[in-house]
Amino acid sequence: MELMVAIFVGVLTGTGIYLTLRARTFDLVLGLTLLSYAVNLLIFVMGRLTVGRPPILDGSHASTLANYADPLPQALVLTAIVISFAMTALLLVIALVTRAETGSDHVDGEEPQAREERR
Amino acid sequence: MNWQHWIIVPVVLPLIAGAACLLVERRAAGVARALSIGTTFVLLAVALYLASIAASGTVHPYLLGNWRAPFGIALALDRLSALMLVLTAVVAIASVLYARGGGARGAHDAQGLHYHALFQFQLMGLNGAFLTADLFNLFVFFEVLLIASYGLLLHGGGAARLKAAIHYVGFNLAGSALFLVAVALLYGITGTLNMADLSQRVATLGPDQASLVRAAALLLIVVFGVKAALLPLYFWLPDTYRAAPAPVAALFAIMTKVGVYCVARVTTLIFGGDAGVATDVAYPWLPWLAIGTLALAALGTLAAVRLRTLVAYLVIASAGTLLLAIGLGSAATLSAALFYLVNSTLVAAALFLLVDSIASGRGESDDAMTPAPLAYRAAYGTLFFLFALEAAGLPPMGGFIGKALLLQASADQPLMVATWSALLVSGLGMMIAVARAGSTVFWKAADANRMQVAAARPAYTERLAIGWLTFAMLLVVLNAGPMTRYAEATAAQLLDRRAYVGAVLGAQPVPPAWTPREGMKKP
C-alpha cells in the first residue's frame, strides 16, 4: 500500500509542478491544487499507514504505534487542507480580477507577444 | 505583574482588534483606524515589557491549552523573540500612522475596505511566528501573515498590484507546499514537531536517516529563503514591494526578516553545531548563496531606475548580509547580524515611506530617478542622505556599526576573503547607487513652485511616521553599546540550545482550578 500511495504522491507532484510552470493563471491554480493534494497525502502517510487500529489509547494493548494509529498527522492534514483551500480560493479570485482588469490570463498580466511589441 | 499570560498577548490582542475593526469599519472608519493605531501602541508597550522579562536570560515557555510540551503547542519567549516583537511594533507604528495620511491621493487606508483589519491580522501572524516553539504552528502563523499580506498588497487595486500579487501568491503557495513537505518529513523521521523536542531527537538520529533529515532541513531553509529573499528565490520581491502601498511595503520590511529569523532559529536550535547527522546542514550553502544574493542585490541597486526598486534591492541586500552572517554561524557573526537586523529593518521601512512621500509630490515623475521639481527639497534631501548612509553602511549610522561588527567577527572565518569582498564591494555598489539617486532627485531638481509645494505638503501623520523611524534609528546609534551587549547576549542564548530545550520541555502545566468531573459531582 505504501508503494501505491508513494506513486500517487509522485504523480500528483509531477503534474502539479508541470501545471504550475505553465504561464496561465488557471493552470497555475490547478497545479498548486494538485501540489497541495500531494502534500496532504504525504503528511498523512508520515503517520504510517495503518488499517483497523484505533487512534485512542484504551489500555488493552501496549501503547506503541504497532497497536494504534497516529492521530496527529490527521489533525495536521485537516489544518493543511483548510489553509490550502482558502489560499486557492483567494488565488482564484485574484486570477479572475486580473483577467478582468488586464484582459489576459497570462501570469505576467499580458500576452508575451504584447510585451515583445512594446519593446 | 507576575501574570503568565503576557506572552500570548501579542498574538491575541491584534486578533481581537482586527476582528473589532471588521465590525466597525463600515459604520465608523475613524473608530477602526483609532482602534488599530491604539492597539499598535499597546503592542509596543507589551513587547517592551516582554523584552524586559526576556532580558534576564531565561527562556519563558507558555503552554497553549495547558498540555505539556511536546504534546501540546508551546510558545517560547527568549531574547531573540522579544527583540523581534519590539522591532515589529516599532515598524508597525510607523506604518499605521503613515497609512492615515496619503497626500493628494487620499489616505492609504481609505482606498479600500479592511485595511486595518488585515493590518492587525498581519501583526498577529508576525508576532506568532516570532513566539512559537512548534514547527507546524510556525507554518500556521506563516499562512496567517501571508494571507493578510496578500490582502494588504492588493489594497487599493490596480493592474500593477494584481500582476505582482499573482507572482507573489503563486510563489508563496508553492513555498507553503514545500514547508509542509519538510514538516511532514521531519515528523515522519522524529515523531515530533516541537522545536525543542526536535532539537533533541535530530541529534540522536542514526546515519541511515541522515540523508532524509538533511533533505528536510534544507527544504526548510529553502522555504525560509523564499520569505527572506535569498538567491535564487528573491525575484518576486522587487515587483511586489514596488507595487505595494507605501505603508504596506514598510511593514513588509519586517516580513523578509521573518525568514531571516526562522533561519537563525532552526540553524541554531535544530540543525546547529551538535545536531548529530544534521550538524551544520546549511553550511557552506547558506553563506555562498547569501554572498550571491548580496552581489546581485548590489547590481540591482545600480540598475534601478526607480526609487522604489532601489529600496527593494536594498532590502534584498540587507537580507543577503543577514543570511551571510547567520550562515557563518559563530556567536560573534550572529550578534553582528542581530545588531544589523534592527538597523536594516528600520531603514528599509523609513526609505519606503520617505520615497512615497517624495513621489507623491512629484506628479507624473512619481518615483522615477529623473530630475523633477521637488517640494521640501532640503528636508527630504537631508532625510534621504541620512537613510542612505544607514542603508549603505556608512558612519555615523548604525548600519556601519553592524557591518563593522560583521567584518570583525568574520575575520577568523574560513570564508573570510569571500565575506569581506562581498560586504565591501556590495557596500561600494550600494553607496554609488544611493549617491546617484540622491544627486539626481535632489540636486539636479529645481525647487517646486508655490502651488506644487502646497499640493505636496505631507500630512502630519506621515511626517510623524518618518520622524518616528528616524528617532528609532538615532536611538539605536546612540545606544549602540547596550544594543551590542543585548545582541551578544541574544547570540549566546541562541547557541545555548540546552537552556531552550530544558525550559520548553520542562514547562509544567498549570494545575486546573476546576476539574469538570470533580466539579460536577458537587451538587
Can you walk through the features of this model?
Chain A has 119 residues and is mainly alpha-helical. Chain A has one domain: Helix Hairpins (Orthogonal Bundle). Chain A is built from 4 helices and no strands. In chain A, helix 1 (2-21) packs antiparallel against helix 2 and helix 2 (25-46) runs antiparallel to helix 3. The longest helix of chain A is centred in the C-terminal third of the chain and has 31 residues, at 72-102. With 523 residues, chain B is mostly helical. Chain B has one domain (4-506). Chain B has 21 helices and 2 strands. Chain B has helices at 9-24, 29-54, 79-100, 115-131, 135-153, 159-190, 195-203, 210-228, 236-243, 246-269, 285-303, 307-328, 331-360, 377-392, 398-409, 416-443, 450-455, 460-478, 480-495, 497-505, 516-521; strands at 60-63, 74-77. In chain B, strands 1-2 form a two-stranded antiparallel sheet. In chain B, helix 10 (246-269) runs antiparallel to helix 13 (331-360) and helix 13 packs antiparallel against helix 14. Chain A binds chain B through residues 20, 25, 28, 32, 35-36, 38-40, 42-43, 45-47, 72-73, 76, 79-80, 83-84, 86-88, 90-91, 94-95, 97-98, 101-102, 107-109, and chain B through 136, 140, 143, 146-147, 150, 154, 157, 159, 162-163, 165-167, 169-170, 173-174, 176-177, 180-181, 183-185, 187-188.
Gross geometry of chain A: elongated
Number of strands of chain B: 2
CATH architecture of chain A: Orthogonal Bundle
**pLDDT below 50 for ≥5 consecutive residues: which ranges of chain A?**
none
Biggest β-sheet of chain B: count, sense, barrel? 2 strands, antiparallel
User: Into how many domains do the coordinates of chain B divide?
Assistant: 1
Structural class of chain B comes to mainly alpha
Runs of chain B in which pLDDT lies below 50 for 5 or more consecutive residues are: none
Q: Which CATH class of chain A?
A: Mainly Alpha
Number of domains of chain A: 1
Largest sheet of chain A: none
- Tell me the series of helices and strands of chain A, N- to C-terminal: HHHH
Structural class of chain A: mainly alpha
What is the chains' assembly state? Answer: heterodimer
Helices of chain B, by number, come to 21
